[in-house]
Design goal:
This protein is mainly β and 159 residues long. It contains 1 helix and 7 strands.
């Protein structure tokens, strides 16, 4: 059955060698915290979905690839200027003989413009792609009145 999925002998040139450092870092932190720390370490995420961000029509759009994730299992929150998208993709087949898909909890954090109003954020999910729309707040402009006093400028004679 493993022969049905082909794999390259050499890594893809588009794959970054640093892509898996995040999980390695979490595992190392967990190891040292478990040995030297006084509390158990709970990982924040088991995997990280792919994200695209772009600005269009005065809004920041965040597109997240979430195939196989039920929209009800996704939480979206804003704390200050950080948008957090989290949830879980559940394993459908425990007895898979070959697996490239990641399962478990995920969390992505994206910085949003200051002044973002959480109640104006909208999200839709279509064919496994979550699209979060964050309206960009308009800059507040105000005029400052400057009082100009007329008068002669004193000059000092050179000594």
């Amino acid at each position: 059955m493993n022969g049905l999925v082909s794999r390259r002998l050499f890594p893809s040139p588009t794959r970054s060698p640093f892509q898996d450092l995040g999980s390695l870092h979490r595992e190392m932190d967990g190891l040292f915290e478990g040995i030297f720390g006084s509390r158990p370490v709970e990982p924040v995420a088991d995997w990280a979905p792919r994200v695209d961000t772009y600005v269009k029509n005065d809004a920041l759009h965040v597109r997240v690839d979430l195939p196989g994730v039920e929209p009800k299992a996704v939480d979206i929150s804003v704390d200050g200027d950080v948008l957090t998208i989290s949830g879980e993709r559940k394993v459908e087949h425990e007895d898979a003989s070959y697996r490239e898909v990641s399962y478990g909890r995920f969390e992505r954090r994206i910085r949003v413009p200051e002044g973002t109003e959480p109640e104006k954020i909208t999200a839709t999910c279509d064919h496994g792609v979550l699209d979060v729309t964050v309206p960009i707040p308009k800059p507040v402009s105000r005029k400052v009145k400057v009082d100009v006093k007329s008068g002669a400028i004193e000059s000092k004679p050179a000594a």
